[in-house]
Amino acid sequence: MKLIALDVGTKRIGVAKADSAVRIAVPYPAVEVDNGEEFKKIASLARAWDINSFVLGLPRNGQGEETEQSRYVRKFAKALKQAVPDAKICFQDESLTSVEAEKRLKNRKKGYKKGDIDSEAATIILQDFLEEHTGKPTTKATAARHQSVKADKPHKLLVALLIVIILLAGAAAGAYYYYTQNLQPVFTEVDCNDQENSTVDACKPVVFKIEPGASVNDVAVDLSNAGLIRNSIVFQIYFRLNYSGYTIKTGEYSLTKAMSMKQITDLIVDGKGGDVFTFTFNPGETVRDFKAKLAKVGYDGATIDEALQKTYEGSYSWIFEGKPEEAGLEGYLYGETYEFYQNDTVETIIERMLTEMADVIEENGLKEKFEAQGLNLYQGITLASIVQKEANNVTDQAKVAQVFYNRLAQGMSLGSDVTTQYAVDLVDPDRQIYTNNADALQIDSPYNTRLYAGLPYGPISNPGRQALNATATPDGEAANYLFFLTGDDGMMYYSTTDAEHQQNIIDHCAELCNVAL
User: pTM for this one?
Assistant: First the structure.
């Protein structure tokens, strides 16, 4: 199996690769962290090397606990999974690898760069991973330590070797017996499918909860403490031998002490029996979409409405700067795929999405960038929500954002039909009143940017990372454009004058420009 190891940092990502059959980790130039571009570069390397298995170094402190950097790595892993959808990701516990990497480089060469340290650290992570999973030394230095015995007295050595072989064979047999015995259920000889045994202790369901971020070691210890497996060390060995490409799913599981280690492991890697559900909310979707999706999952409509009307004041609440008190949460529910427990409240779901939004704003310095464009945070999110609906790729989003800035600077109305569409959706979602575009474009609403100059009252969708960044850093090359449209071919066409814009409509937008709002 081929593997790529990543030493994830906030500025650079060390890269190494190896084939488990050869067990030699080879460093490659580090990848610079560049506003999401790093994921494209890593995906490109994975395609070029035909590799979809990744090993990420997971830092821990001196007490073996995860740190803030650990959480950063786990968040990086989620983003990597989006960039490489078929990626299989494993974590390798590590600490002080950068220190060890620098020592190695000092001994080997002069004039190394910081990126060299990161890639050497990735090599160490991958070597450690290979050694743990193959049980064999991965470097020449390690292998050499196993060849230092000199054959001074061949006959005595042969006798000693035979004794060692016999002892090792006995030990191996004993270890194998111990290992296989501990794979068995805590209680054997009990058939829980037999209705008569349903009240027997071995068959009574035990609710076992796996928290987000729990490692294999954590789960093994918790299973042992709950009396559900015989030995936590054996569980870790069994998992790494048989499930190395899998991840443990969070959730609550109903287990019994009559289940084998294989039965338990199959459940927790498949997520079967857990009470976790996946909730996907896409960039560009609205609060209305959010309510419909939650209702489809099983949440009560009145409960959803009540939660949306509440005031949220967690550590993320700074993102509401500039938002009118009476305004809702449109624009703040960050689009992402989430995992929630079935009994999580709507408030819990909303708080998680607000936290994600705060993380994206903070990580990308959006507040400061919006201010550089003359907008406060609420205004920046509002404009980004329009950009999100007007263009579907980052290049056009940056150009569209610049067009809107140009129009604002000249005191022109934004003239965005997507804002008018949102205004109509609020009062007439089924188009019983506004049955044609001419009527819709005249709707008297603070969201109608054809009638009212400046930004609309608030966001018209929930923008994603790309639209937020494009709005915060618009394309300066579009500084002369005042108009744009999406053609029937899906391409965006830009123009400086209204005459040019009208010609673009004739040339490129015979059908799309007449679609009902």
Answer: 0.55
